[in-house]
Amino acid sequence: MTLRVLNYLELESRLDRSGIGTAVDHQRAALELTDTADVEVYTSPQQAFSPRKWVTNTLWSSTSDADLIPDLGTCNNPNEQSSDRNSRSDPDRSAQSHADSTQTPVSVSAADTDTDTTIDTSDSAVSSEQAYDIIHCNLVGPGSVVVAQYALRSKIPLILHAHVTREDFAESFRGSTTVAPVVERYLKWFYSHADLLLCPSAYTRRILQAYPVEAPIQAITNGVDIESLSGFESYREHYRDRYDLSGTVVFGVGNVFERKGLTTFCQVAEQTSYDFAWFGPYDTGPQASRTVRRWTKNPPSNVTFTGWIDDIRGAYAAGDIYFFPTKNENQGIAVLEAMACGKAVVLRDIPVFEEFYTHNEDCLKCETQQEFRDAIHRLVNNPTLRSRLGENAKATAQDHNLERVGDRLVETYETVITAAEADREIPAADIR
Fold this sequence. Notes:
The chain has 16 helices and twelve strands. 47% of the residues are buried. The longest helix is centred in the C-terminal third of the chain and has 20 residues, at 402-421. By secondary structure, it is an alpha/beta fold. GO terms for molecular function: glycosyltransferase activity. Residues 249-395 form the Glycosyl transferase family domain. Residues 130-227 form the Glycosyltransferase subfamily 4-like N-terminal domain. Residues 69-124 are annotated as: Disordered.
């Protein structure tokens, strides 16, 4: 039997190579690789929707699900949230699911679809066959709210994926720290509607449980697409020449945020003579934080901010020591990518990394600038240590390969579907 999955990421075209966008790419690639089930993945709702028609037909319609309209001032009551999540069992609010037996899997983002229609969950638009067996949403904005509402009204099992928390939202762009408490209340409300909430780590699960989110929560790695990094070595000369890098290069990969340790990265660089490079885009407009503007406009003489690069393999080719002094992560996909490329890795010693990486085995963990500087000096001056850490890091990355991710996703989907069909909660033993 074919398992039909709507794996939805709103604003997909704007999230290319972001952490969330990469995580979703990994999910979809993993589901293609799994051999435990025949999976059809759909990446956009059957019919797109415009903001105007969403407001008209969904939020303010007489048949709207009131509990999918957030009240951030009153969403602190766990009992209310639990009631919201279980509302699909209320017969007064049931609906047959929308279906189209001729629908085929597509690989387009919501931005690429027809914007003149809306998801129609009215009685006149439904049939006896479900369009999807399960819905998996990866973001938390209005598009995801509409898709979640569609799942609730159609009684389709709903998985939400917590790529965003209050903790990693802070220090990401101008004003993000100020509004983070409101973000927490919204996330608590939205995530509590899931049949199951996925997140990338046990650390993130503990964070969400403390909000508290009133839904079962399961940790599953974002994984690493090892195959997509193959051949990275051939880019070394081109990318080092392009950014005028020489010698042992200390590098980072990803969007430039203070949360990711920007100030520490630059201040440690100032204390060494090595070339440092941060491969990844950074904001320059009004949304950019003061810290990001300061360091990217006037970086230390040995620090290069490359901005967007054409091929991420160029970053892992040009760099030698991956340096990631981040303050908070849900997992950190770029760490796994660097490890998959056999790079020696220097990390800040934060809770999320405890469950994945071991100091002096597949990485070096540090807490202070002096420790970071000393670790980098050790690796530069000890090629044997660098090689040993790199080889062990490759083995760690293999534990997160996409084949394993795909098998876990299918197992999770089947568990959620089985529980929904039996009209019961997911057994605690099935949540890992």
